[in-house]
Write a structure and sequence with these properties.
The protein is mostly helical. It has two domains: about 100 residues, no CATH class; about 140 residues, no CATH class. Helix 1 packs across helix 3 and helix 6 runs parallel beside helix 9. The protein is flat and about 70 Å long. The model has no long low-confidence stretch (mean pLDDT about 80).
Length: about 270
Protein backbone atom coordinates (compact mmCIF):
# COMPACT_ATOMS: atom_id res chain seq x y z
CA UNK A 1 0.00 0.00 0.00
CA UNK A 2 1.09 3.63 -0.41
CA UNK A 3 2.35 5.46 2.67
CA UNK A 4 -0.91 7.33 3.22
CA UNK A 5 -2.86 4.07 3.13
CA UNK A 6 -0.53 2.65 5.81
CA UNK A 7 -1.08 5.74 7.96
CA UNK A 8 -4.85 5.48 7.57
CA UNK A 9 -4.72 1.80 8.49
CA UNK A 10 -2.60 2.64 11.56
CA UNK A 11 -5.03 5.39 12.56
CA UNK A 12 -8.03 3.07 12.28
CA UNK A 13 -6.28 0.38 14.36
CA UNK A 14 -5.33 2.94 17.03
CA UNK A 15 -8.87 4.32 17.21
CA UNK A 16 -10.32 0.83 17.62
CA UNK A 17 -7.74 0.02 20.30
CA UNK A 18 -8.60 3.21 22.23
CA UNK A 19 -12.31 2.35 22.06
CA UNK A 20 -11.65 -1.12 23.50
CA UNK A 21 -9.48 0.35 26.27
CA UNK A 22 -12.19 2.91 27.08
CA UNK A 23 -14.78 0.14 27.35
CA UNK A 24 -12.39 -1.76 29.61
CA UNK A 25 -11.99 1.35 31.75
CA UNK A 26 -15.75 1.26 32.33
CA UNK A 27 -15.26 -2.20 33.80
CA UNK A 28 -12.45 -0.74 35.92
CA UNK A 29 -14.88 1.81 37.34
CA UNK A 30 -16.93 -0.96 38.94
CA UNK A 31 -14.00 -2.97 40.31
CA UNK A 32 -11.92 0.02 41.41
CA UNK A 33 -12.22 -0.55 45.17
CA UNK A 34 -11.05 -4.20 45.32
CA UNK A 35 -8.23 -3.48 42.88
CA UNK A 36 -7.02 -0.55 44.97
CA UNK A 37 -7.14 -2.69 48.10
CA UNK A 38 -4.99 -5.27 46.33
CA UNK A 39 -2.48 -2.67 45.11
CA UNK A 40 -1.98 -1.04 48.50
CA UNK A 41 -1.69 -4.36 50.39
CA UNK A 42 2.16 -4.46 50.22
CA UNK A 43 2.37 -1.03 51.84
CA UNK A 44 -0.31 -1.74 54.42
CA UNK A 45 1.60 -4.83 55.54
CA UNK A 46 4.44 -2.59 56.79
CA UNK A 47 4.42 -1.25 60.37
CA UNK A 48 5.19 2.26 59.05
CA UNK A 49 1.74 2.33 57.42
CA UNK A 50 0.01 2.24 60.82
CA UNK A 51 2.15 4.61 62.84
CA UNK A 52 -0.55 7.26 63.33
CA UNK A 53 -3.13 5.22 65.26
CA UNK A 54 -1.65 1.72 65.13
CA UNK A 55 -4.64 0.29 63.23
CA UNK A 56 -5.48 2.21 60.05
CA UNK A 57 -3.36 1.95 56.92
CA UNK A 58 -2.51 5.56 56.12
CA UNK A 59 -2.00 6.85 52.58
CA UNK A 60 -2.58 10.57 52.21
CA UNK A 61 -3.26 12.96 49.33
CA UNK A 62 -2.27 16.62 49.22
CA UNK A 63 -3.87 17.88 46.02
CA UNK A 64 -7.50 18.57 45.17
CA UNK A 65 -7.45 16.24 42.16
CA UNK A 66 -5.19 13.53 43.61
CA UNK A 67 -8.01 11.17 44.51
CA UNK A 68 -9.54 11.48 41.03
CA UNK A 69 -6.15 11.01 39.35
CA UNK A 70 -5.64 7.86 41.40
CA UNK A 71 -9.02 6.45 40.41
CA UNK A 72 -8.54 7.42 36.75
CA UNK A 73 -5.15 5.70 36.55
CA UNK A 74 -6.57 2.50 38.04
CA UNK A 75 -9.51 2.59 35.63
CA UNK A 76 -7.12 2.89 32.67
CA UNK A 77 -4.84 0.12 33.98
CA UNK A 78 -7.79 -2.22 34.34
CA UNK A 79 -9.05 -1.16 30.93
CA UNK A 80 -5.72 -1.99 29.29
CA UNK A 81 -5.62 -5.40 30.97
CA UNK A 82 -9.24 -6.32 30.30
CA UNK A 83 -9.15 -5.23 26.66
CA UNK A 84 -5.68 -6.67 25.94
CA UNK A 85 -6.97 -9.48 23.66
CA UNK A 86 -8.75 -6.91 21.49
CA UNK A 87 -6.01 -4.28 21.11
CA UNK A 88 -3.35 -6.98 20.74
CA UNK A 89 -5.37 -8.32 17.83
CA UNK A 90 -5.38 -4.82 16.30
CA UNK A 91 -1.60 -4.73 16.55
CA UNK A 92 -1.42 -8.18 14.99
CA UNK A 93 -3.81 -7.26 12.19
CA UNK A 94 -1.65 -4.24 11.30
CA UNK A 95 1.66 -6.15 11.32
CA UNK A 96 0.54 -9.54 9.93
CA UNK A 97 0.39 -8.56 6.20
CA UNK A 98 4.14 -7.85 6.30
CA UNK A 99 5.04 -11.25 7.78
CA UNK A 100 5.87 -14.48 5.96
CA UNK A 101 4.15 -17.75 6.80
CA UNK A 102 6.91 -18.97 9.14
CA UNK A 103 7.07 -15.60 10.93
CA UNK A 104 3.31 -15.66 11.48
CA UNK A 105 3.60 -19.09 13.06
CA UNK A 106 6.22 -17.78 15.48
CA UNK A 107 3.95 -14.96 16.63
CA UNK A 108 1.23 -17.45 17.56
CA UNK A 109 3.59 -18.82 20.22
CA UNK A 110 5.17 -15.47 21.05
CA UNK A 111 2.05 -13.61 22.17
CA UNK A 112 0.74 -16.08 24.83
CA UNK A 113 4.27 -16.72 26.10
CA UNK A 114 4.90 -12.97 26.36
CA UNK A 115 1.70 -12.54 28.37
CA UNK A 116 2.77 -15.28 30.79
CA UNK A 117 6.28 -13.83 31.21
CA UNK A 118 4.96 -10.29 31.68
CA UNK A 119 2.52 -11.54 34.32
CA UNK A 120 5.31 -13.38 36.14
CA UNK A 121 7.49 -10.27 36.09
CA UNK A 122 4.68 -8.03 37.32
CA UNK A 123 3.83 -10.55 40.06
CA UNK A 124 7.45 -10.62 41.22
CA UNK A 125 7.47 -6.81 41.30
CA UNK A 126 4.29 -6.83 43.38
CA UNK A 127 5.95 -9.12 45.92
CA UNK A 128 9.28 -7.28 45.90
CA UNK A 129 7.66 -3.85 46.37
CA UNK A 130 6.83 -4.45 50.03
CA UNK A 131 10.33 -5.76 50.79
CA UNK A 132 11.92 -2.85 48.92
CA UNK A 133 9.90 -0.26 50.85
CA UNK A 134 10.81 -1.98 54.10
CA UNK A 135 14.49 -1.59 53.23
CA UNK A 136 14.02 2.03 52.17
CA UNK A 137 12.04 2.95 55.29
CA UNK A 138 14.84 1.45 57.37
CA UNK A 139 17.00 4.46 56.46
CA UNK A 140 14.51 6.89 58.04
CA UNK A 141 15.98 8.63 61.13
CA UNK A 142 14.44 8.14 64.55
CA UNK A 143 11.33 10.17 65.27
CA UNK A 144 10.22 10.59 61.63
CA UNK A 145 6.81 9.58 60.29
CA UNK A 146 6.10 8.09 56.86
CA UNK A 147 3.37 10.07 55.06
CA UNK A 148 3.16 8.53 51.59
CA UNK A 149 0.78 10.08 49.06
CA UNK A 150 -1.56 7.83 47.12
CA UNK A 151 -0.37 9.09 43.72
CA UNK A 152 3.35 8.61 44.47
CA UNK A 153 2.70 5.11 45.78
CA UNK A 154 0.62 4.10 42.74
CA UNK A 155 3.23 5.55 40.36
CA UNK A 156 5.90 3.53 42.16
CA UNK A 157 3.86 0.33 41.90
CA UNK A 158 3.10 0.87 38.19
CA UNK A 159 6.75 1.62 37.40
CA UNK A 160 7.99 -1.49 39.19
CA UNK A 161 5.43 -3.79 37.57
CA UNK A 162 6.05 -2.40 34.08
CA UNK A 163 9.84 -2.59 34.40
CA UNK A 164 9.78 -6.16 35.70
CA UNK A 165 7.15 -7.26 33.18
CA UNK A 166 8.92 -5.79 30.15
CA UNK A 167 12.26 -7.08 31.43
CA UNK A 168 10.92 -10.63 31.58
CA UNK A 169 9.66 -10.38 27.97
CA UNK A 170 12.97 -9.08 26.54
CA UNK A 171 14.73 -12.52 26.37
CA UNK A 172 11.72 -13.86 24.49
CA UNK A 173 12.24 -11.15 21.87
CA UNK A 174 15.82 -12.39 21.47
CA UNK A 175 14.48 -15.90 20.84
CA UNK A 176 12.00 -14.60 18.27
CA UNK A 177 14.72 -12.68 16.43
CA UNK A 178 16.86 -15.82 16.38
CA UNK A 179 14.03 -17.85 14.90
CA UNK A 180 13.66 -15.21 12.19
CA UNK A 181 17.39 -15.39 11.46
CA UNK A 182 18.09 -11.82 12.60
CA UNK A 183 20.21 -12.65 15.68
CA UNK A 184 22.62 -15.59 15.86
CA UNK A 185 24.07 -17.37 18.86
CA UNK A 186 27.57 -16.35 17.74
CA UNK A 187 26.62 -12.67 18.00
CA UNK A 188 25.10 -13.20 21.46
CA UNK A 189 28.12 -15.16 22.70
CA UNK A 190 30.47 -12.47 21.41
CA UNK A 191 28.58 -9.77 23.32
CA UNK A 192 27.72 -11.82 26.43
CA UNK A 193 29.81 -9.79 28.89
CA UNK A 194 28.47 -6.51 27.57
CA UNK A 195 24.88 -7.76 27.72
CA UNK A 196 25.21 -9.07 31.29
CA UNK A 197 26.84 -5.83 32.40
CA UNK A 198 24.09 -3.86 30.69
CA UNK A 199 21.42 -5.90 32.50
CA UNK A 200 22.99 -5.07 35.87
CA UNK A 201 23.29 -1.38 35.00
CA UNK A 202 19.70 -1.25 33.74
CA UNK A 203 18.43 -2.97 36.90
CA UNK A 204 20.32 -0.47 39.05
CA UNK A 205 18.95 2.52 37.11
CA UNK A 206 15.27 1.61 36.84
CA UNK A 207 14.79 0.28 40.38
CA UNK A 208 14.93 2.28 43.63
CA UNK A 209 18.25 3.05 45.27
CA UNK A 210 18.51 -0.21 47.25
CA UNK A 211 20.08 -3.56 46.36
CA UNK A 212 17.06 -5.82 46.89
CA UNK A 213 15.03 -4.58 43.92
CA UNK A 214 18.11 -4.45 41.70
CA UNK A 215 19.04 -8.07 42.45
CA UNK A 216 15.40 -9.19 42.18
CA UNK A 217 15.34 -7.81 38.62
CA UNK A 218 18.91 -8.54 37.52
CA UNK A 219 19.14 -12.20 38.58
CA UNK A 220 15.95 -13.40 36.79
CA UNK A 221 16.90 -11.40 33.68
CA UNK A 222 20.35 -12.98 33.60
CA UNK A 223 18.85 -16.46 33.98
CA UNK A 224 16.28 -15.79 31.27
CA UNK A 225 19.00 -14.43 28.97
CA UNK A 226 21.11 -17.54 29.53
CA UNK A 227 18.10 -19.71 28.64
CA UNK A 228 17.49 -17.60 25.53
CA UNK A 229 21.15 -17.98 24.54
CA UNK A 230 20.95 -21.76 25.06
CA UNK A 231 17.87 -21.90 22.83
CA UNK A 232 19.67 -19.87 20.16
CA UNK A 233 22.67 -22.23 20.36
CA UNK A 234 20.49 -25.32 19.87
CA UNK A 235 18.42 -23.69 17.13
CA UNK A 236 21.52 -22.56 15.22
CA UNK A 237 23.02 -26.07 15.39
CA UNK A 238 19.81 -27.57 14.02
CA UNK A 239 19.73 -24.92 11.30
CA UNK A 240 23.34 -25.63 10.28
CA UNK A 241 22.66 -29.35 10.24
CA UNK A 242 19.72 -28.89 7.90
CA UNK A 243 21.37 -26.19 5.78
CA UNK A 244 25.19 -25.88 5.99
CA UNK A 245 25.03 -22.47 4.26
CA UNK A 246 22.45 -21.02 6.66
CA UNK A 247 25.04 -19.56 9.03
CA UNK A 248 27.54 -18.49 6.38
CA UNK A 249 28.91 -15.02 7.06
CA UNK A 250 28.88 -12.19 4.54
CA UNK A 251 32.67 -12.35 4.15
CA UNK A 252 32.85 -16.16 3.87
CA UNK A 253 33.01 -18.09 0.60
CA UNK A 254 30.59 -20.95 0.06
CA UNK A 255 32.24 -24.35 -0.60
CA UNK A 256 32.46 -25.50 -4.21
CA UNK A 257 31.61 -28.94 -5.45
CA UNK A 258 34.64 -31.18 -5.80
CA UNK A 259 33.32 -32.78 -8.99
CA UNK A 260 31.40 -30.65 -11.50
CA UNK A 261 28.00 -31.79 -12.61
CA UNK A 262 27.49 -33.41 -15.99
CA UNK A 263 27.58 -30.93 -18.79
CA UNK A 264 29.36 -28.31 -16.65
CA UNK A 265 32.87 -29.80 -16.65
CA UNK A 266 35.29 -26.93 -16.98
CA UNK A 267 37.76 -29.19 -18.81
CA UNK A 268 35.34 -29.48 -21.75
CA UNK A 269 35.24 -25.74 -22.27
CA UNK A 270 37.91 -24.63 -24.75
CA UNK A 271 40.32 -22.06 -23.37
CA UNK A 272 39.89 -18.46 -24.41
CA UNK A 273 42.67 -16.84 -26.48
Amino acid sequence: MPLMEHLRELRNRLVKSMIFIALGAVVGYFVYEPVWELLKAPYCALPEAREIDGETCNLIFTGVFDSFVLAFKIWVIIGVLVSSPFWLYQVWAFVAPALHGKEKRYTYYFLPTAVVLFTLGAGLAYYITGLAMEVLFGFAPEGTLAMITITSYLDYMILMMLVFGIGFVTPLIVVLLNLMGVVSHAALAKSRRVILFGICVLAAVVTPAEPLSMLALAIPLILLFELAELFCFINDRIRRRNDPLAELGDDEISPLEEEPEDGNDASRVPPKH
